[in-house]
Write a structure and sequence with these properties.
The structure holds two protein chains of two kinds. By secondary structure, chain A is mainly α. In chain A, 72% of the residues lie in helices and 3% in strands. In chain B, helix 2 runs parallel beside helix 11, helix 3 packs parallel to helix 4 and helix 5 packs across helix 6. Classes of the chains: A mainly alpha, B alpha/beta.
Chain lengths: 286, 397
């Protein structure tokens, strides 16, 4: 067996970094919703894909820059997130039941996507597709750099918001002890709606990034669930930076596994890491 | 008076018998099948539905089967083999269909095959990918990939390269572990070895892999003359994209079952090779039957807003399945499953793919897979020469 070259290893690590950033970006809203709202929102993946399809449609019809579609898509999905949360609050859906309810919502959104765009593959053609930088022997594709940029910027922004603003403190207080937080004037219901809308808006950003790099098909919604859940659980529920860090660890580990050994071993990596974490730090999830 | 009443009874009885016979004679032949009308396989299943509708419509214009009109009952198996199994049971026991037509795709066909076997029914199917699992004696494949595609397909591809004077010295075999193509990729390794081609890389990935960057980097690093990609669906496009991001295009690259639409539309796929039983260009589309079908399909597919409006593998295999059923019924003048199966086993059928026989192992005949290549945004058959598009030659950059 020959050893892989340094270029191969570095390029693979970069590839893992980029895909890990996408895991983190998708996981960001999911983890916040799970950790702070106690809603295990499977519909987050459907929102991500619905946003990706919407971006595809807007770009195909109008020819605008894919990133400009965020102006329309982000507020739209914020509203969708608020509506879904209002529904969950109206029926006082528990954390476990939210998993079932949002799975149903996912199935509905998948069917709607299929009805509108068919089950066939859709590919967003944009000027970003082939744009890349070369750094020594390494290639840095622009769509993946955009995803990485969004993932870092949004994770840091939300971390700062949760850590250093009154709004963030109120959100964390409401999650920690809702009645006491309410006694101090925290409007938990309004905050939950705001956070749910933000999480859905984050899904929309992830969707636009997804459409820049991946071919779309409705059934692909489910392909991301396992690894993103692993990233969220490893990163810590309710954490803003955790999913990105965990996503990158998973992505790079998978990529290096593919570069050094058989690529078919790569999916084992994320779950091995998760199991190891659960064994070593069982209190991290929950 | 009594005599008159008796005559009346005789006339009424005769009329009743005649009416019953007439009604029976005019009862349609009911053909039952399922298709993945919803779920992940629905995009391709829509092609099979459209082909079935076109065929039954044309068949009924020709007078149907045995002088009776044909009614096609198609149920939605939701892309789930277990649902297909239940629905085929239902078609046989509750709907009491006269004949069966296969579902899409391999998993559902395998389910339907089990049900057909339990009830001794004939099952003609479109695109079953694992011939050695087709053990039931009354199943017949419309997709002419031969009984051992793991050997014949790689040989055809390498023959095509040899004929173009581009026999590779080195090969990289990279493949998904998806069942109906993994064994063909393993066969490609064996065939390459027997032909003295040096394997510089062998990689496998799980179906559903998202990150093709490291795989692309390893292919680039291995510098093979020829990359055999055991890809199904999107994997081929994802790998091409990943290689392009590294500014790399292999000298020769082949994809087993790529998603035909997305690959042909990809600007970076020019020169990519694959295999096909039919493409919508001469000489395959020039027979009167093929010409009428391809024209009708194009019109109807455009109207139905299908992304691929040209007849290719799926539509051709689907059409072939109906041709086989019609030929067997006309050949036996019967709807008896045993007689139909025996007829197919001992007769060749003229189809748009060519003449098919079913007397080989597991009722498979010849491997009629041809080598096709993306050239200027179109799939063109480039090998063998007798079915190649006019003037088309295998191009290696």
């Amino acid at each position: 067996m020959t050893l892989p070259s340094a270029t191969l290893l570095a390029q693979s690590a970069l590839s893992g970094l980029f895909v890990g950033a996408l895991y983190g970006l998708i996981g960001l809203g999911l983890g916040l919703s799970w950790g702070l709202l106690r809603t295990i929102n499977l519909a987050h993946f459907a929102f991500t894909f619905a946003a990706a399809y919407l971006c595809y449609q807007l770009v195909t019809v109008t020819g605008i820059d894919p990133l400009l579609t965020l102006i329309v898509i982000v507020p739209l999905f914020f509203a969708l997130g608020v509506a879904l949360q209002a529904l969950l609050q109206r029926f006082a859906v528990s954390a476990l039941n939210s998993l079932l309810v949002t799975f149903g919502v996912t199935a509905i959104i998948e069917a709607a996507i299929q009805a509108i765009w068919s089950a066939d593959f859709r590919r967003l053609e944009s000027h970003y597709a082939q744009a890349k930088f070369k750094w020594g022997a390494l290639y840095l594709p622009v769509p993946e750099l955009i995803t990485l940029g969004f993932a870092i910027a949004l994770s840091l922004a939300l971390w700062a918001l949760l850590k250093h603003t009154d709004l963030g403190k109120a959100l964390r207080a409401a999650e920690h002890d809702a009645p006491i937080a309410a006694a101090f004037g925290v409007n938990q219901r309004a905050l939950a709606l705001l956070l749910a809308g933000t999480c859905a808006a984050l899904a929309a950003v992830a969707g636009v990034c997804l459409s820049l790099s991946f071919t779309l098909a409705p059934s692909q919604i489910y392909a991301w669930i396992g690894v993103v859940f692993a990233a969220v659980m490893m990163g810590g529920l309710g954490s803003a930076l955790g999913p990105l860090v965990a996503g990158v660890i998973i992505g790079v580990s998978e990529a290096l596994t593919m570069a050094i050994t058989a690529p078919s071993w790569a999916p084992i990596v994320s779950f091995t890491l998760l199991i190891a974490l659960l064994l070593l730090r069982p209190g991290r999830v929950g | 008076m009594r005599q008159l009443r008796n005559w009346g009874r005789v006339v009424a009885g005769a009329a009743l018998c005649a009416l019953t016979a007439l009604a029976h004679a005019q009862a349609p032949v009911r053909i039952g099948s399922t298709l993945a009308l919803t779920g992940p396989l629905s995009a391709t299943a829509q092609v099979h539905k459209l082909v079935g509708e076109i065929y039954v419509e044309q068949l009924n214009k020709r007078g149907g089967l045995l002088g009776r009109q044909v009614e096609w009952i198609v149920k939605d198996d939701q892309s789930k083999p277990d649902v297909a199994r239940t629905l085929y049971e239902q078609l046989i026991t509750a709907d009491k269909v006269d004949l069966l037509m296969g579902p899409y795709a391999t998993g559902a066909i395998l389910s339907a095959m089990g049900v057909a076997q339990r009830y001794d029914k004939l099952l003609i199917h479109h695109t079953f990918g694992i011939p050695n699992l087709a053990k039931y004696e009354r199943q017949f494949p419309a997709w002419s990939l031969g009984p051992d595609p793991g050997t014949t397909v790689p040989n055809t591809v390498l023959d095509a390269l040899a004929a173009a004077g581009k026999t590779p010295k080195t090969i990289a075999v990279v493949t998904s572990k998806f069942p109906s193509l993994h064994f063909i990729s393993l066969g490609a390794r064996e065939v390459a070895k027997k032909r003295g081609i040096n394997e510089v890389l062998f990689l496998e990935w799980e179906f559903g892999n998202r990150d093709f960057g490291p795989i692309a980097a390893r292919i680039k690093d291995a510098k093979p003359d020829f990359v055999w990609v055991g890809a199904i669906g999107l994997d081929g496009n994802l790998l091409i994209d990943a290689m392009k991001k590294l500014d790399y295009t292999p000298p020769i690259h082949f994809y087993v079952y790529p998603a035909p639409g997305p690959m042909v539309k990809s600007a970076d796929a020019d020169g990519a090779l694959s295999v096909s039983i039919f493409e919508d260009h001469p000489p395959l589309n020039t027979s009167p039957v093929a010409a009428e079908f391809t024209k009708t399909f194009r019109e109807r597919a455009t109207k139905a807003n299908l992304p691929e409006t040209n007849v290719e593998v799926q539509a051709a295999a689907s059409f072939t399945a109906w041709q086989m059923l019609e030929a067997a019924v006309n050949g036996t003048k019967s709807l008896d499953d045993k007689a139909l199966a025996a007829w197919l086993k001992s007769n060749k059928v003229d189809t748009i793919q060519g003449k098919l026989r079913f007397d080989g192992p597991n009722n498979y005949g010849d491997d009629l897979m041809h080598v096709k290549q993306v050239q200027n945004g179109r799939w063109l058959i480039v090998y063998p020469p007798n079915v190649a598009a006019p003037g088309a030659k295998l191009i290696v950059k």
